[in-house]
Give the backbone structure.
Amino acid sequence: MFIFNTIYEIPFLKGSATWTRRILGNWEVSGVFQAQSGTPFSVRKNVDYAGVGAGSGNQFWNLVGDPSMEPTPFTNSAVWFNKAAFAAPAAGTFGVQPRNILRNPGYWNLDGAVRKNFPTFEKQFLQMRFEIFDVFNHPNWNGASADPTSGSFGQITSKGGTRALQIALKYIF
């Protein structure tokens, strides 16, 4: 995971007359960039294949092939891994599969803001903000379905995040 945050106060009109600086100066820009790799996961099902009793939790499926493949292009859904590489364990046995053998898609996002500070009394000021969340409107795909009995097993069927704009007025005292 990598996160970069910056705030920059624009030095425009710093040395000019007070009324000019109050009207045209006191601008700030900021941004937050975040990037991270996808979360690891395994193919499991909450079924007691091994016969150890209730409360045994999710049990692994057998890895019978190579789960890696080139993901299909994203449209309404995308096939993320080779689902034929997994098979249900035989009754009375545990599935054999390395833990967290698969990884969901990575994530990156950029948020930005522009602020104008209007000095009022002493150290108080009125701040007008314009903020953009997900500046590039970049889709960040949600995780692949790891439920081997689901019709969408091995597929990514949704995404998170859309661009959002926000205007705010804040009095700081």
User: Anything to note?
Assistant: The chain has one domain: 2-172. The chain is about 5% helix and 40% strand. The radius of gyration is 26 Å. Residues 2-172 form one domain.
